[in-house]
Amino acid sequence: MKKEYVMGNSAIAIGALCSGVKLVAGYPGTPSTEIIETICKVPHKGVHLEWSVNEKAAMEVAAAAAYAGARTMVTMKQVGLNVASDPLMSLAYVGVRGGMVIVVADDPGPISSQTEQDTRRFASFCRIPVLDPSSPEEAFDMVKDAFVLSEKYHTPVILRPTTRVCHGYASISFDENYEAKDPSGFEKDSSKWVIFPKLSYNNHRLIEERLPVIAEDLSSYGYNRIIKDSKKSGKAVLASGISLAYVRECISNLDLKVIGIASAFPLPKSFLLEALNGVDELICFEELSPFLEEELLKLCGEHQLKIRIKGKLTGDVPHSGELGVNKVQSILNKFLGRNDKSEGISFTEKIPDPPQRPPVLCAGCPHRGSFYAVKVATGRKKTYLCGDIGCYTLGNALPLDMVDTCLCMGAGITMAQGFNYLDKEAKSFAFIGDSTFFASGISGIVNAVYNEADITVCILDNATTAMTGHQPHPGTGFNLQGNYVDKIDIESVLKGIGVKKVMTVNPHDLKASVAAVKECMKVDGVKAIIFRAPCISIVKLKDKCRVMDKCSNCNICINKLGCPAMSLKNDKVVIDESLCVGCTLCAQLCPHKAIERIHHE
To answer: Could you give the C-alpha distances from 493 to 53, 178, 490, 502, in angstroms and in order?
Structure first.
């Protein structure tokens, strides 16, 4: 046996490998990304591993392998499940042969997401089981349990870690001599694998019939348990996920029953009915939605249990954001009629608040030049500037202020069309990255060409998936397995779709970039500018920029670009050489030619 101290995502990855997983596919998205990256770094002989172009593709690739009897895993963040929902809903009806685990990392806060949506709701909607780990150790065990559950009931199973579980650390022990299980093979049977209305009708009935059976099975699941019992109090706490970990840090001297739930759906009713015996009042701790709280209310109503239930619905637990130990302690004190100064978690000194650092484009980021070129070229013209998910979302920050909307991946292109149809006099722009172009942008451009939109699509091609950690994509020329593959050329794709004009320019060349934007604005229909320069985090430039003595301190460079390498010191403009990468955008902008480029070996 091998023992390692690992991140929660790594624990999930190793758990899957120890379970004999044969195929793993996903799309990068914080807080889930490190699962696939871990598998890539550790021995994984016989395992097909890929970054798919999006979550829908990943789900479908894994589904076929699961039909053939292989154990498969799909990874994504919570908003990625929206993209994968089409195949997932049908998979619930069709079922699988090999175990299929769908890891969906929820993001309370949200820390790095557009929403705080709750995957437990999705599991209930899809009618498939969901397991909810409260620690990296539990995540390691539960991914193995999920494969077993999936194969037993021929259904996909969701594993739902949240950010603090994904990025927390713990020690796990495992047999390092794991190997991928060979699949039994696909057995052709159109009456099972080809989804028709009659099959859907019959399978829906079977799904609803099996859910109580699964719930009964999960009532004896070891991670559904009473953490602490109380024979006197009549008060209880019910918690799941990371909230259970917070509760466990607060209860050493408290007289109450603590119930931990690991399988949020289907609810383990038999276990809960026994656990609730003798309870008069209960408070639910869970992040995101009041899912368990609502399920408990239904259970109490169904069995006429006279238990007062508190939580999000009663205003005792906040609806949004993370909880944390201090919040849980304060809420428990109130629940028990104690003041916050009573015995519990305490700190000898106040922890200072971290400094506020608003997200901005990195110094030398090529996207800054792309945004600024569009800003200069459009001047005072009325514009609609539709952004997208990724580093380029940061173009909304002052002084650039070049993102009017940001909805979801790929939506910038289609939203620009909507603005164009309503306001023909304005110029509509869509900004999208190279990875996002392949993930969900192509169909939007097809829609624009087909429906005769007049928009300019700006593809900010920095040769990587930057915001999630520089994962490869179809335009990089290599895949996750490290194999060199044919690079899919964005310009050729655009021309093949029927885009009227396609231009490629280096965004660090301000004059050429502005000229390209102006030229495209003269053309009716769909046109595209590929702003191509590598992310400065993967290709380090050796040159630096320096402010010369003839600087007049007009501050135009600072006020127009907002580059974090530039600042004022004693009322004079200075460039921090530790941040500067020598992109020269500031030098090109300076009206006094007071910034020079210097070469560093």
So the answer is: 15, 42, 5, 10
Omega of the bond leading into 197 within 30 degrees of 0 (cis): no
Backbone angles phi, psi at 285, to 5 degrees: -115, 115
User: Whole-angstrom Cα distance, residue 453 to residue 420?
Assistant: 7
CB neighbour list of residue 351: distance below 8 Å, 6 or more residues apart: none
Per-residue model confidence as pLDDT tens digits over 389-438: 888 889 898 999 999 999 888 889 999 999 999 999 999 999 999 999 99
**Strand stretches in 132-277, DSSP E:** 157-159, 169-174, 225-228, 235-240, 257-261, 263-265
Tell me the CA end-to-end span of the chain in Å, nearest whole number.
48
Distance CA 154, CA 72 (A): 13
Cα 89 from chain centroid?
A: 20
Measured in degrees and rounded to the nearest 5, phi and psi for residue 476 equal: -90, -20
Q: Which two tokens stand for residue 361?
A: 């484009």
With beta carbons less than 8 A apart as the criterion, state whether 310 and 284 touch. yes
- Contact status, residue 131 vs residue 146, Cβ threshold 8 Å: yes
Is-contact 363 544, C-beta < 8 A?
A: no
| Separation of alpha carbons 61 and 534, rounded Å | 30
pTM comes to 0.86
Identity of the residue numbered 543: D
Mean pLDDT for the stretch of residues 79-101: 94
Of 10, 5, 36, the residue nearest 468 (C-alpha): 36
344, two tokens: 């519990």
237: its two tokens = 């706490």
Structure tokens at 346: 């305490």
